[in-house]
Each structure stands twice: as C-alpha cells, then as structure tokens.
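Lab notebook, bench 4. Still working through the backlog of constructs that have no structural model yet. Next entry is a single chain of 515 residues. Request: give me the structure tokens for it.
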Amino acid sequence: MLIRPFRRLLTRSTTVSHFHTFPPCLSSKRILQKFKLADIGEGITECEVIKWNVKELGTIQSFDPLCEVQSDKASVEITSPFDGVVKEILVKEGEVAKVGQGLCVIEVDEELLDSESAERLEPVSSDAPAPSPIISDSKFAEDTTSRAEHAPEESSAPRRPHPMDPNYSPPSTPNANPENVLAKPSVRHYARQSKVDLVLLSGSGRDGRIEKKDIDAFLSQQASSVSVHSGSAAPPAQAEQDVVVELGRTRYGMWKAMTQSLEIPHFGYSTSLDLTSLHSLLPTLNSHIPEHFNPSKSSLLPINPSALHPAPSPPPVPESAQFTRLTYLPILLKTLAKAMMAWPVLRSSITPGSVNGGGKPTLTIRPHADIAVALSTTTGLYTPVIPRADTHSIYSLSSQLKHLSFLGRQVPCALTMNEMPKRGATVTVSNVGAIGDGEYAHPVLVPGGGVAIVAIGRARWVWDVSKSDRGERRLKVGVSWSADHRVLEGAELAAFVESWRAYVEAPERLIGEGI
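Model written out:
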C-alpha cells in the first residue's frame, strides 16, 4: 500500500511557475488628437495658414513653432503646447481655417495632457486609423528615431526683407533648381507641356509663387519677340484681356472694416499748425541723439563717468529701431500725447451696450495715451499701436516708429499681436504727407479704431499775413480730423486741437513740464 503512492510521486510531472513582470512605468498610452485653431484676437474668425514649420510624421517638442497664420490684423506664430508626432496636416499652406477648426492631427501621450492643452485638442473620430493602445517606451523611442531619420529636417528660414529695405540685396543668379520654385503641381504640369523652364520666370503670386498667367505672359513675350524678328507685327495675346485679382486677407479685412465704418457718424475738422519753432529746434535735437539710439555717434569721454560707481546703462535697442535723424512726426506724437492727457475723452474707448438686454454703451477712460499709427505695407493697411505714448521721450517715439516701419516692410508682414493688441488705441495718426503732396484729407474712422483719427499733410513754407501786415515766412502743415460724433462734440474736438496747437507752436513748454 505504501509503494503505490510513492510510485505516483516519482512519476508526477514537476510544475514550474513563470512570472512575467511588466512595469506600468515602462509603457504609455498614445492617442490621436486634433489641434484646433484658438481665438488669437478680438473679432478674428478665420486665419490663413502661411507656413508649416513641421512636416507629417515629424516630431515636435513643447514650445516649438508649429505653423504661422495670418489674420486680418497681423501674422501670428503658433507653438505646440506639448510633445508629440504630427500625423496629418489638415489645413495646407495658403488655405483658410476657421477659429475652432482642426489644423493638424498629433499623436500625444495621454498622461502628459493637461486641462489647458485639452481645450485646444479634440479626439479624432473612431473611423480614423488608431495606433496600438499600449506602446513600450523603448519601441516608441525606436519609432521616433526612425521617423526622425527618414523625415527631412526643417530649417526656419529667415524673413526676406522688402525690396525697399536698405538691407535688401537682390539675388545674383536665378535659382537653378526647379524644385525650389514656388508653384502648384498643376502649374508645373502646364509648364512641362508648354516646355517652359520655371527657373526663368518671376512669380506674381504670394511670396513669389508662379501662376499660370506668368507662363502665358512668358509665352506671349516669346511669341512677340519671334514675330518682331520675323518682321510680322502680331499683337500680344494677353495684353488686352481683363485680369481678375482676388482680394488678399488684409485687403478683404480692410473692405469689411470700411463697410462697417458707415455705421459711425463722422465729424470732420481741418486746420493748420505752425511748425516754424519746431523747425528751428530740430537741428539741436538731431545733434544730441543718445548713443543707444544712434551708435554711429558714440564718442569716448576723456574721463570715465563710471570711475566711482557704475552708471546706469540704457536699455538695449535693436538695430531695426536705431536712427540717425529725427523728423517732425515723433514730436507731433509727443505733443499729441500731452494734449490727450489733458482731455480724458480722447483717451476713452467705446464699449457698445447689449442689444437684447437694452444696456447703454459705456466709455472706458484709460490712464495713458495709446496712439495708433497707420502703416501701409505690401499686403495692405495696418494700424500698430504705441501704448503709453505720453511716457516716451521724443527719441523713444522715433525709435518705435522706425521699428514698426521695419516690421511692416518684411515679406510677409512681421507685425504681430504684440504690436497690435486687442484693445487697440483711442486716437489714430495717418502721416499721408510723407507720401503725397496733399495738405488735407478725409480720414475714415472704423469701429474699434478709437474715438478720433487725424491725417497729417505735407508741410509747406507759406507767406503768413495773419499776425502782421508785412507778413512773414512760416512753415505750416495741414491736419484733418475725423471724430465719432456719438461721443465727441464739435466744440470739444475744436478745443482739443487748440490744446494740441499750444504744444506744437510753443515746444519750449515741453522743457518746462519736464517732457
């Protein structure tokens, strides 16, 4: 009886237990999310994608530039709020995206998503191909490395200066590689059929993009040159045809703003300011431009002023904000800001009341003078803002104007929401006299553009007999105002202009008030 159990023990198979360890910290769940276009400004409902800084299947880190979009007001660079892999680009370059619309699909780590990032994300629908729910970190690192090896590296191209920029240098030789020429696939196919080398053409589209009409114009030019050599005088095919041009984003925004300006009852007021005293003061101001605004005038003193204690150093000034000569405009802006501080209504912005609630509109009085400057660029009209203009010196205002002009000359326009904030300004200045030879104009006030706008004409030397019978030679400039008659009375605007005149025609007051 004891032998049988013992024999069973000898013949029983040995059971071995194998334990599989799978630490949860070595795995992460990857999900697909749509990155949506957020609200980048007041009144902005759509934007045009100018450039993508990353390609599909390319990796991106937090705060890396994702793409650049342009609205009716400015161009904005959108950065990525998290790490991930761009799986699909939903809005191509040159296409328009609505606020809240998905720009791209990004594969992200679910554990790294926070509440702020989740607001700009939207889960991809289930019909889209989803990745495996659990991927080990080692395999994900290998996949990321392989993608990075196969994906071409994106180099952030610097902005090209405008042809009117002094730093602009035209290309010495045309681009020898046709693949680097900006053109649509249909245009490339048409060029191959027409046996036209795209390298020889200069594009008339956005950013130098070659259009089909450029190829037709090149073919007609060749045909006309052949006909001239052969003695036949055949008229060019495209010379007498109508050309339909679509409005760009900025000009279409100007179209809508000017249409809305018809809702504002305008009150116009024109007069002239005497700049003779300013003209006499300008050479002295030009000869004493601070060194940080004009480094070419730096001079070494025989005695070191910081021998006892380091002297306070001025703030750094970028090269685009440096200047060598003052003009009348920054002095006029400074005196305008001084007058605005004495008139709170010119420092106010309108908040319309609720239509359904029946609330009354209100005025918000700002503590400082925020002045906008109308700036004409290659893509349209912009109004960047100089905030707190009353706290700036004349030299600082000239530096601000130089920097804004530099940003406006870039292609595409480099003005961003930093230069054009949502709240805008209360008074806008248009220096039309710097371009044309006119003395007066009729500026238009748009909703959200403040309570008044002034156009400054061309300054002229005139013979003035208003103060004496013999008369004298004076330098005068015409100014034309348009104000919101719902807020400003005609007498108030006239009295405010006289307050501005008192500073312009007696600039010595700035010295007495400590500038």
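Notes after review: Residues 13-27, 126-157, 172-176 have pLDDT under 50 and may be disordered. The radius of gyration is 33 Å. Flag for follow-up if needed.
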